[in-house]
């Protein structure tokens, strides 16, 4: 289930700068009941990323029509396409000499549907097990926050473990600050205050992460964005990770430290579900 | 002129991890008189990169045969294929769930020939003009030195200028240390001693950079690898940049500071040409 620049095909030219240099961006979006969840926010982030990388912003209307076309013609797939994962990749397209982008660019849009990962509901209800990754994130203010295609750090970190009893790896930067999970953002609460890492030098600014900020402001929960280390994280009352597909997963165990699934995490899960329906 | 896993085609599946995550490596090799120059060194670096990224090392024999096949069947191209550029890309291939690499990987090999860039010989003989880039390189010991496909920093830096009178941009890291050019490594000489940046936290460890070390040792020239800033670079006697396609280009002007094309740079150019023939 793939559209490349609106055409049904599953390949791109080798010359595409997405392959040559990771010169592009992506979004991973939950589809529930046949509708992309938080699509407006995903398209806004995609637009922001394009502006930061100076890639011409693809028309949201184009992308919207292509998503509808994909979802409408997905009857023949064997998996349940009304609840699935939608991925959008935008690259700078082909051309240019070496690193230098061509003067006139025609970006590539790749829109695809994928079966939902088969995460048990217990992850959401009773929490997950997590570990600390050995792989350290680099520091790069230029690219921090952007969901771009240069993702070797995450690939290497995620390859650190293959046991099924660990669901996420928590990544530190080279200064030993906690930054994020390999595929998620991280929050913890302590004495009723929410904490999450600053993403000024590393990390991806997640859609659900931003929504947790929105919910915290709306419900008068203090939220504090700062640099913190392993020890501070391990002294938390509650920890949870977020992304667009998992929503909010509490961490019940991080390395050898056990955490309770607290009321703040559960409340945020309820509020996030309500936001999805708004 | 392209071979993908030995087959003549010019596209790859969208699922390739080279596109999805920049999960791969590349080499850019000079072809002179129908022969790839320093091929052994390029294949060794490719192998080192694969080992560092845990990508199965493609057989050098396979790649060698494919290069020969490409060069032998390039008669119909309009450009001069006996003197051209050979590019090798190796990606981790398709598959895996999210960032997690698949348990069993079949890497993708992409081998292609390109016309040589039309650099005037004056660049080599009389030097080039260079500027300092605004774009700062991040710090990432995990990936430093590797010629991987995560190259957004270089793309953004190279997009800073389009005037034809500037041939290279010199990049600093976020600590304001000089690291490299957008497409080259950098050296300077001061009082007969060669200096070049440490690449422990950023930068690509170039083949010609390594050969300059070899030549310096062979000819008893002191070479010093360390962190230095703009001011130190601008106080140099001679500056030059290196890569596999350009060889050694002296810098005759960096921003407003003018440099002479000194005897050390010229001597290294001669020795490098001799190495090519060995």
TrEMBL record, chains A, B:
Its EC number is 4.1.3.38. It catalyses: 4-amino-4-deoxychorismate = 4-aminobenzoate + pyruvate + H(+). GO terms for cellular component: cytosol. Keywords: Folate biosynthesis, Lyase, Pyridoxal phosphate. GO terms for biological process: 4-aminobenzoate biosynthetic process; folic acid biosynthetic process. InterPro entries: Aminodeoxychorismate_lyase_IV, Aminotrans_IV, Aminotrans_IV_CS, Aminotransferase-like, BCAT-like_C, BCAT-like_N, Class-IV_PLP-Dep_Aminotrnsfr. It holds the Pfam family Aminotran_4. It is an enzyme of class 4 (lyase). Pathway: Cofactor biosynthesis; tetrahydrofolate biosynthesis; 4-aminobenzoate from chorismate: step 2/2. The keyword Nuclease does not apply. Its cofactor is pyridoxal 5'-phosphate. CDD domains: ADCL_like. One of its GO terms (molecular function) is 4-amino-4-deoxychorismate lyase activity. Involved in the biosynthesis of p-aminobenzoate (PABA), a precursor of tetrahydrofolate. Converts 4-amino-4-deoxychorismate into 4-aminobenzoate (PABA) and pyruvate. Homodimer. Belongs to the class-IV pyridoxal-phosphate-dependent aminotransferase family. This is Aminodeoxychorismate lyase. It comes from Crenothrix polyspora.
């Amino acid at each position: 289930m793939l559209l490349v620049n609106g055409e049904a095909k599953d390949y791109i030219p080798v010359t595409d700068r997405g392959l040559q240099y990771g010169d592009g961006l992506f979004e991973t979006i939950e589809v529930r009941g046949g509708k992309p969840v938080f699509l407006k926010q995903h398209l806004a982030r995609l637009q922001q990323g394009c502006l930061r990388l100076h890639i011409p912003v693809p028309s949201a209307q184009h992308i919207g029509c292509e998503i509808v076309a994909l979802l409408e013609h997905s009857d023949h797939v064997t998996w349940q396409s009304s609840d699935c994962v939608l991925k959008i990749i935008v690259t700078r397209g082909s051309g240019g000499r070496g690193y230098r982008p061509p003067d006139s660019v025609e970006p590539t849009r790749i829109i695809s549907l994928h079966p939902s990962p088969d995460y048990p509901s217990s992850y959401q209800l009773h929490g997950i097990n997590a570990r600390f990754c050995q792989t350290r994130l680099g520091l790069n203010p230029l690219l921090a926050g952007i969901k771009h295609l240069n993702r070797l750090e995450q690939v290497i970190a995620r390859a650190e473990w293959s046991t099924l009893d660990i669901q996420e790896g928590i990544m530190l930067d080279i200064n030993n600050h906690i930054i994020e999970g390999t595929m998620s953002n991280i929050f913890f609460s302590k004495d009723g205050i929410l904490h999450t890492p600053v993403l000024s030098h590393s990390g991806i600014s997640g859609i659900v992460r931003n929504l947790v900020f929105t919910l915290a402001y709306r419900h008068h929960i203090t939220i504090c964005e700062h640099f913190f280390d392993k020890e501070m994280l391990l002294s938390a009352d509650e920890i949870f990770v977020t992304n667009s597909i998992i929503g909010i997963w509490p961490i019940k165990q991080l390395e050898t430290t056990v955490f309770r699934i607290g009321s703040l995490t559960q409340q945020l899960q309820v509020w996030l579900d309500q936001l999805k329906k708004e």
